[in-house]
Amino acid sequence: MSIANVFNSLKRLTLNEKIGTSLIARSVSTDSPLCFQVTQFLCGEPLKKKKRLDPAIIRAREEKKKKKLEKQIRRLEKSARQSKPIDECEVPTVLLEPEEVKIRKRKIPPMTSAEVDERVWLTKDWTRYRYQQAVGDISIVERLAYSQARALHELRQESEELYQEAIQIDPAMLPFVVQGPVVTPPIPDYESPDGEYVDISKKWT
After folding, report:
1. Which residues contact residue 12 at a Cβ distance below 8 angstroms, ignoring those fewer than 6 apart?
2. 180 — alpha (psi -120 to 50), left (phi > 0) or beta?
3. Which residues is 25 bridged to in the sheet?
4. What is the top-level taxon of the source organism (predicted)?
5. DSSP 61-95
6. What is the model's pTM?
């Protein structure tokens, strides 16, 4: 029997069924059987009845949430007042050990009475010198301010225009000169580094 005759004999096994406006056509095949899959039924369900809670319970829950938020705020405020540690200013823990302290402790011989008296006299002399220097500086500043005020008063009596010009700010007293471009020029024959780097800087939150 030829292949054409086999196909012609199988044509009668074709199912043609018209349901409504759709046409379902299924041919008989020798492959694996067709397995029908049906989804589960989705039926409506009545809404669950809401439970009426006691107002005291609701108030207690709100108070609990409020206290929790206040606790978190206090924790943040406490951590905000702490300053960031500086590694350069911190003493290593190795140096604070008792054995290390004993090794690094220097034995200072006691001073004699003559050395104590000499240091006291030197301190007094230095204090007296600094006091006289401060008084002299203050007197010089006061004398210059008095002379300036007196000169301005005499100048104002002579001419109001000259007085107004004299009290103006003189920009030439603090000269400011800028030279060069505002942007750094490129470095000639500079090869930019190619690759990745690892940032090991500490981050504080």
Report:
1. none
2. left
3. 16
4. Eukaryota
5. HHHHHHHHHHHHHHHHHHHHTSPPP-TTTSPPGGG
6. 0.34
What whole-number distance in Å separates Cα of residue 10 and Cα of residue 26?
12
Q: What are phi and psi of 167, to 5 degrees?
A: -90, 0
Neighbouring CB atoms inside 10 A of 187's CB total 8
Rounded to whole angstroms, how far apart are CA atoms 152 and 168?
Answer: 12
Report in angstroms the alpha-carbon separations of 51 from 19, 48, 63, 73.
49, 9, 21, 34
Which tokens in the block code for residue 90? 């911190």
Query: Measured between alpha carbons, how far is 186 from 43 in angstroms, rounded to an integer?
Result: 75
Q: What angle do CA 76, 80, 83 make, to 5 degrees?
A: 150
Q: Which two tokens stand for residue 1?
A: 């029997």
DSSP 167: T
